Amino acid sequence: MLTASDPGRLGNSLLATNGSSTRSFADPDHYHSEIRGGDSLLSFLGRGTFHGDVTTVRAGKLTLQRARENLPRLSCSSMPPHRIGILGWLRDSPLPIVRGTQMEPGDWMCLGSGMQSHHRTSGPVDCVVLTLDAGDLTYAAFALTGRDIAVMAGRILRPPVRLGTRLISAIEAALRITEILPDTFTSPQAARALEATLLRLMIMCLVQGEARRESSPLNRRATIASRFAAEVEANLDGPLLITDVCRKIGVPERTLRNLCQEQLGMSPHRFLALRRLHLVRQVLLRSDSHAATVTDIITSHGIWELGRFSGSYKALFGELPSTTLLRRATTDERQ
Fold first, then answer.
1. Read out DSSP for 75-100?
2. What CATH number is associated with residue 284?
3. Which residues contact 3 (CB under 8 A, 6 or more apart)?
């Protein structure tokens, strides 16, 4: 049975991995790339000044992260290879739509190795994720239950209420300790105890929880949506026709339109426009207004309807592209 004093594989290399940290972000891309250490893309769906916090607690082989952000958004993220875990939401947090499925109170999303998924939120989010290497979970599960368990990518897990409550309570306690005494989990003993507690509860939730397995058609649509998003991202610096994307990923335009509405909450054309808006904003924020013009930057990304683009830009970000470009110059002068 797995205990806090287990001298086996899970107790090794603690001194090299233990610890906790909390980072605050004003740059949404830096914030989102911090979560789970995977690749990510993020687009906002509403106005506002972004703020996000990520708390990371490493306890032996297990990593706990809490991510809080304040704006509604659409994001695409991927798990690192060989890493698996579960994703949940803290109390009173508005629940997102993940891979085309509306999450419900008490749900956890199973995260498979290399899994890609789209998340759509309607407001502030407060989520937690537990991750570890697949082999370490296999070892821990066998030590605790005498059998193997599998984390099926995209599976929605509903643990018994008592177990789900205990897991959330243990996570919240660890986060409170990190906030009050941030050096606590640099201690091998404290890290080992937290690792054993969270792993045991996670495994029992996986074993005893009611699972809603993602249907094959839904899984396929989620995969196609990820391929579509990747194709868009690779061609944002020039003209891109949705018909060409459909041909490259091998689906009819009507099919793409339907699955984008399901997975992304918008049409393919709207997604392309949204990604271009965000990419142009990133470039404007990093450009020198003395060396580049708004027109140069916008047209270099395949956009020729300048007036229409500027109106869409202001509607989403609350300012004209020219104002964004001048912001760096103003900041440089102050420094």
1. EEEEPPTTEEEEEEE-TTPPP-EETT
2. 1.10.10.60
3. 196
DSSP state of 60: T
**Residue 180 burial class via C-beta count within 10 angstroms: exposed 0-12, middle 13-18, buried 19 and up:** exposed
Q: Could you give the 3-state DSSP secondary structure of residue 30?
A: helix
Q: What is the tens place of the pLDDT at every residue in 93-138? A: 789 999 889 999 999 999 999 888 889 999 899 999 999 999 999 9
Cα dist from 27 to 42, 141, 234, whole Å: 11, 38, 22
232 falls within a domain:
no
Cα 296 from Cα 280, distance rounded (Å) = 11
Task: Supply the DSSP symbol for 254.
Answer: H
Is residue 214 over pLDDT 80? no
Structure tokens at 274: 């949204």
Please give the residue range of the domain that contains residue 79.
Answer: 9-212
| Cα separation, 15 vs 161, whole angstroms | 35
**Residues in Cβ contact with 125 at an 8 Å cutoff, skipping those fewer than 6 apart:** 67, 68, 69, 89, 93, 94, 96
Nearest to 150 by CA among 139, 133, 163, 138: 138
**Residue 112 belongs to domain with CATH number:** 2.60.120.10
Q: What does the alpha-carbon distance between residue 209 and residue 212 come to, in Å, rounded to a whole number?
A: 10
Type of residue at 192: R
**Full-model pTM:** 0.84
**What does the alpha-carbon distance between residue 25 and residue 49 come to, in Å, rounded to a whole number?**
11
Banded model confidence at residue 9, pLDDT cuts 50, 70, 90: very low
Average pLDDT, the chain: 86
> 233, 275 in Cβ contact below 8 A?
yes
Helix, strand, coil percentages in the chain from 3-state DSSP, rounded to 5: 50, 20, 30
Mean pLDDT score, 215-240? 85
- Rounded Cα–Cα distance for residues 283 and 4 (Å): 49
